[in-house]
Amino acid sequence: MSVSFGGQPDAVALRDSLAAGEGSVKAVVEECLARIAEHNDRLGAFTRVEDERAHVRAAELDAKRDAGEPLGPLFGVPVAIKANLCWKGAVADCSSKLLANYRPPYDATVVRRLIDADAVIVGSTNMDEFAMGSSTENSAHGEAHNPWDETRTPGGSSGGSAVAVAAGMVPVALGSDTGGSVRQPAALCGLLGLKPTYGRVSRYGLIAFGSSLDAVSPFARTVRDVARTLEVISGACDRDSTCLPLPPYEAVQPADPSRLAGFRIGVPKQCFPPELDAGVRKCVEAALKELERIGCELVPIELPHAELAIPTYYVVATAEASSNLARYDGVSFGQRAGAHGTLQEMFAATREAGFGEEVKRRVLLGTYVLSAGYQDEWYGRAQRARTKILGDYQQAFEDVDLVVGPTSPCTAFRLGEKTADPIAMYQTDLLTVPASLAGLPAISVPCGTSEGLPVGLQLVAPAREDARVLRAAQAFELATDHHRALPPMLQGAGA
Amino acid sequence: MSATIERDGDIWVSSKTGTRWQVVCGLEVHAQLRTRTKLFCGCETSFGNPPNSRTCPVCTGQPGSLPVLNEDALALGVRAALAIGADVAPWSKFDRKNYFYCDIPKNYQISQFDRPYCTGGGIDLPSGKRIRLHRIHLEEDAGKAIHDRGTTTLVDLNRAGTPLIESVTEADVTTPEDAFEYLTALKEILIYAGASNANMEKGELRCDVNVSVHPAGEGWRTKVEVKNLNSFRNVAAALEHEVLRQIVDYESGDESRFPVQETRLWDADKLVTRSMRSKEAADDYRYFTEPDLPPLTVSESFLEQQRNMLPELPAARRSRYVRELGLSQYDAEVLTGDRAVADFFEAAARISGRPKEAANWISNEVLRALGDADFAATTIDELPLKPNDLAELIALIAEGTIHSAAGRKVMRAMLETGDAAKSVVERLGLEQVEDTGRLEEWCRAALDGKDAIIADVKDGKEKALGALIGPVMQASGGKANPQMVREILRRLILES
C-alpha cells in the first residue's frame, strides 16, 4: 500500500493511531495539504482549500488530545466536502459562476456532524455545476482529471471529491448522489462510493438539485471508512422532514467472506445492456464468480421497467431542479446582472449570465414538464413510472438479498468525449439511476481494471438495509485485492 | 351610473333595460394564524420589528435550507376548520407554487394545491343566509417589497414564512351586505377559536373578491378578481362598485367594454376598481408536490384534542344568553362581540348569580371605560377590574349595603384603582343611610316651601312624591335609602 495518512492506510487506522497518541493532527493536516498543493493544479480536485481553517482546527484537536478529552470517531481525519455542502463562512458555490463567493451563514447537518466527530475539513471540491453532469466538466472552475489517466474524466458530478480521495489527498470525502453522482465517479476512480437509503442522511445544508433524490454520500478506500463516515453523518435530523427517524447507522463488525454464504444475489438482465463496455462486462462477470466462490448464489432476475429509468429520472430531477434553482435570481443569491431594467429583466439577465449551458438546459426541461397542459403527460407519467421501478425492486427483493451489476456502462471516458452530446452523457447514468428513483442504498465497489482503468461493481439492497450493502462490500473486499489497486501517480511513490 | 340600477333583494334590476342581474361572488380570505413562530422555521412572527430582524436560513430561502412544519400552525388551522364545521382531511399535502418575485425568497411559495387540509363547512349570517366554504388551505406568507424608494426596491423578509390559512367561499355571496356580514362573522369565529387575531390593520386578515354578473336564468359570465381591500367596508363598497360597473359595461352593448378575466385593484380614495393585469398573461404556477415535506396527516385523536380546545362560539353563546340567562338579544350581542368580554361576563355572572345585573354593569360601565382615555385600557383584560370584583359590587347592591346610584361611583373608583368594592365603599363612606333621624332631617329640608307638592300628595297624587325624592338623595350624597325616604316623606306630609 503506497497511499497513507500519518503512516496509516485509512481513516479508521489514522484516527486510532492519533487517539493512541501517535503523531499529531498538525502533521497529518500538513501532509494532506502538501499533497493537495502538489497535485491540485493539475487534477482540479479542490476549488477551495481552507488551509488556514484546517491549521487552526488541527491545533484545536491536538490541544483536545493533550487535555485528555474524549476523542471523536473521525478524530484528526482530513475530509473534503463537495462544493454544494454548506459550511458556515466557506464558499459553497456549486461550481457555478452564478453562486460565486456565496458563503452560507450556517452549517449543513453533515458538516456539523463531521466537526462534532473531530474531523478536519480541508476544503471544498469541484463538481458539475449544481451537480448536473456526469463528468465534472460543467464546472465554472474547469474540469477535474482522473488520477488514473489525466486525459480522462473522473466521472461526476462529485468528481472533485472522487479525485481528492483517489489521488491520496484525503482518506474520506463527501459528495452528493442524485442519479449516480457518487457511485459513478467512485467506479471510474477505483473507490468505494455509498449512496445511503434516501432519508438516512440529513439533506439540511445540501444545496438542492433534485430534492426527492439527493443523498449526501461518502467516498473512501476501505469499507470500514465508508461505514465509519456513515455512522457519523447519518441519523434523524429535526431540520429535515424527509430524514428518517432512525438512530445513527452503527457499523457492523468486519465481515468475513463466509458470512455471505447463502446470500442470494440477483443479477438483472437489464444491467447488462448491449452498450455495456466489454472490459466492464468482463470485470463484473469475474466479480460475480468471486461472489459465487465465497458462497453466494447468483439468481438471474428481471427489472422490467429499467428502461424507463433514464427518461423518468430526467423528468423528475429536472422538474424539482427548475423550482430549486429559481431562487438564484440576483435578489439575494447570485451575481446580479441587468440591475437597471425591470425586476423580471434583472432575473432573466442574472440567470442568463450566471448559469452554464447544462443547467439552463435542465431548468428549461424541468419548467416545461411542469407546465400547465403538459404536467400530467410528463411529470405525472414520470411519477407513475417511478412507482413501477420501485415495484420492480420490491418484487426482486422478495427472492434475493442484493441486486448486483456494473455501476457504470463504461470506464472513464476522455475529457470532451461526450460534452457535445447530452443524451450520450445522460446514458452514463443508466445503471445508477434506478436505485436513486427507488431511494435504495447502493454502493460501488472496485472490482478490477480494464485497460488500466477501474471498473465498479454496484450492490443494491432494500430500503434501510444500508448495513447489508456494507457487509457484502466488506466480504467482497476481504476476498479480493481490487481495492488495493492504485492509480499510476501513486504507484511506487513510496509516500 | 348607479341611478339606473336598483336592488330587488338579491337581484339587481336595470331600469334602462329591465334586465334582472344575478351576482355571483366568492370571497378569498387570508388569515394569519396566531402562532409564536413561523410556518416552517423557528423565527418569531412579528409586526413592526426592524426589517429582516426576524429571519433565518429557512425563511430567507438560503440554498440548502429545508422547511419543517410548525405543529402549532396545523393545530390552529384545524381549530379554525372545526369552528366553521368543515371537514379536516386525514391526509393532505403541500405543494410548491412557482413564480418569480422579489419578496418571495425561494421564488416559490409552499402552499396546498389539489389536496387542502380542509374542505366544506359554512357560516350562518345574522340575515339568516348561509355562506358555504369551499376549502381552506395552509400556506406561507411572502415578505414585503417596498417600492417607494426611487429606483431601488427594498425587501423585508420578517413576514416571509408567516403561517396563513386561505379560506375560499362558494359563490354564495350575492350582496355587499352578505360580504360584510360574512367577514364580520368569520373574523369573530377566528378570534373565538384562538386561530387568528384577525387584525386587518396589521395585515392579519386580507380579503380578495371574485365577482361576476349575469342575467338571472342565464349562465355565469367572466369572473373578475378585486384586490387591495383593507377593510370590510371597502370589501362591500368594492363589490357594489364592481357589480354596477360590470352591469353598465354589459348593458353598453359595446363588446370591447365587456368585463374580461383580470385582477383589479380597489382605489379606496376614488371608490373605483382599476385593472391591474389581465389573466391572459397570468402566471403558470407549475404546482407540484413539495418534495421537502412529507404528507400532512391528521389523526382522529389530534382532531379530538383540537375539538376539545374550541370554546363555545359566539352564535351559540348569544342564543344561550338569551335563552338561559334571560338577556336581551341586544345585550347578548354586545357581550359576545369580543371573546374576552364574554368570558368576563360569564365569570361575573357565575360568581354573582345575577347575570342580568352583570350584563348591565358590563355594557353600561365597563365597556364605556374601554373607550375612555382616563383608563388607558383598550381590552377588558387590561382593566384592573376583575369579574370577582364586579360580582362583589353586585352583591353589595343586592344586599342593600349601597344604593345602585352610589354603585356607579364605586365602579368608577374600582376601575381607577383596582381596589375591591368593599374597601371603596368604606373609603368613600357610601353605605346607605338608614338612620331615621338623619333621613327625617333631609326630608324636612326638602319639604320646605314645597306647598304645592304637599297639597298634591294630600290629594292622593302619590306620584308627586317623586319630585321630592331626588333632592333628598342629592342632599344625602346618594347614600339615603330611597325606599325609606319615600315612606318618611309620605308620613311627614300626611302628619303636617
Tell me about this structure.
The complex is a heterodimer of chains A (495) and B (496). Chain A has 15 helices and 11 strands. Chain A has helices at 11-19, 25-43, 51-66, 109-116, 159-166, 183-189, 223-233, 278-293, 309-324, 343-354, 357-369, 375-396, 422-427, 433-438, 466-479, and strands at residues 46-49, 78-82, 120-125, 172-177, 192-195, 215-220, 264-268, 297-301, 402-406, 442-450, 453-460. With 495 residues, chain A is an alpha/beta fold. In chain A, strand 10 (442-450) and strand 11 form a beta hairpin. The longest helix of chain A is centred in the C-terminal third of the chain and has 22 residues, at 375-396. Chain A is 37% helix and 13% strand. In chain B, strands 1, 2, 3, 4, 8, 9, 10, 13, 14, 15, 16 and 17 form a 12-stranded mixed sheet that branches. In chain B, strand 15, helix 3 and strand 16 form a beta-alpha-beta unit. In chain B, helix 2 runs antiparallel to helix 3 (232-251) and helix 6 packs across helix 8 (355-370). The A-B interface holds A 84-86, 92, 94, 99, 102, 104-106, 108, 203-208, 211-212, 238-242, 319-320, 322-323, 326-327, 329, 331-333, 343-344, 347, 367, 370-372, 375, 379 and B 57, 60-69, 96, 98, 100-102, 105-108, 153, 155, 284, 286-288, 291-294.
Question: In summary, what is this structure?
Answer:
The complex is a heterodimer of chains A (495) and B (496). With 495 residues, chain A is an alpha/beta fold.
What is the approximate shape of chain A? globular
Mean pLDDT of chain A: 95
Average pLDDT number of chain B: 91
Number of helices of chain B: 15
Gyration radius of chain B (Cα, Å) is 30 Å
Poorly predicted regions of chain B are: none
Briefly note the structural class of the backbone of chain B. alpha+beta
Report the largest inter-chain contact.
A-B, 43 and 30 residues
The helix content of chain B, as a percent range, equals: 25-40%
User: Major β-sheet of chain B, in short?
Assistant: 12 strands, mixed
| SSE pattern of chain A, N- to C-terminal | HHEHEHEHEHEEHEHEHHHHEHHEEH
Strand-residue proportion of chain A: 5-15%
Structure classification of chain A: alpha/beta
Proportion of residues in extended strands of chain B: 15-25%
In DSSP terms (H or I, runs of 4 or more residues), the helix count of chain A works out at 15
Number of strand segments of chain B: 19
Rg calculated over all Cα atoms of chain A: 21 Å
What's the domain count of chain B?
Answer: 3
Strands of chain A, total number: 11
Provide the low-confidence segments of chain A as ranges.
none
Q: Give the overall silhouette of chain B.
A: elongated
